[in-house]
């Protein structure tokens, strides 16, 4: 395996070297970097031309310019990266740091959301093959995959930003009864299709979801939830307990009481942590949140190991999952409590352009909300587009694996369907999905150019587009350095994960 990894590193280095040379040559020959200055009527035009020639090294042959860039990249090995300057004299390494931070904040979240929900949807549609929900999900995923990015972005701006902001700014934001009925019908139809069962069970599921909607939405209106949202300890506890029970059902089955008790114990301790950390989280910083997260995960692992008995592994996973859910709910509660003050600062919370409000001054949670609302629309757009790939590949892989002999053998041995799907079929279907995950992350960094331009993000896409328009190779090569290296490394990581998922690949 070590020899394989070293060979891959060597071949990947040669690929990156050749691609960088080709891209550099194409960029510098795509136009005239001095065109705007040649047409200028400024009195200091000649000085500006000489200054740009000096910044971009235009007085050197192309191979000398490329060698200077390659030498600067080589210094990254000793932590002294020198990616040159752009045509204005700014250090590209500084521009790259800001752009990469902005894009990664967007791409990582979108990839994780698409990955989790895409895999879950793929498993569901594979289990419910040729059912109504399979056809509906197939139609929706192909529709999302086919949407032009710029057009979908405009729709999101119109309905999820401008429309929501107008609704929130109205004197009495609330849900009308036609809206409540439509939401109840859609939710009821979706849940009965997902949970399936006989006609009676489907009917009760539909009626329960519809009734819940007709009670919950008016109650939220009565609380003025849109402007003063809150969860409270009761809701946090109920959701935490539901997470523990649900994770136990999927991971070990409700008959395994040790695993269930470990999850429920974690949920109870999460409620204790809600009160214990309330003052600490009033206006924290990222270091405090990181420390509390590490402590929470550590306590959850200890609970799983101590209470799991012979099912320590399953109990630990359930306990950690419950701890993550409870921690997320506590953070959401603090965000909710900061929402009214945030509305007083910005007025219209869902932004349509930019990655953060300029010169924004607020508490930690208000700043969190500001960056989160700016992140909302582009994240939804990128996640919806990637969701189709994950769900279709997962469905196809699950259907292929389910026809194998070892799956029929597992069922013949008497294993329940949960064990057959999650422990046998799902793990063996992950190999093609791993390939998609590796390339999708690297592809989203490079493919977010249009999304960033539509939403006004100053990220990697903006850096690349500006470099091309100005015939400036330094920003373009910086973009290539990040995206090309990410593609190679994630491809290598996918190959290593193959060996982890399938022991046969190791030999």
Automatic annotation (TrEMBL):
PANTHER family: DIPEPTIDE TRANSPORT SYSTEM PERMEASE PROTEIN DPPB-RELATED. PROSITE patterns: ABC_TM1. It is found in: Cell membrane. Gene3D superfamilies: MetI-like. The lineage of its organism: Bacteria, Bacillati, Actinomycetota, Actinomycetes, Micrococcales. It comes from Citricoccus parietis. Keywords: Cell membrane, Membrane, Transmembrane, Transmembrane helix, Transport. Residues 100-498 form the ABC transmembrane type-1 domain. The keyword Transmembrane applies. This is ABC transporter permease. It is a multi-pass membrane protein. Belongs to the binding-protein-dependent transport system permease family. The chain crosses the membrane at residues 104-124, 136-155, 175-196, 203-220, 232-252, 259-280, 286-307, 314-332, 375-393, 430-456, 476-501.
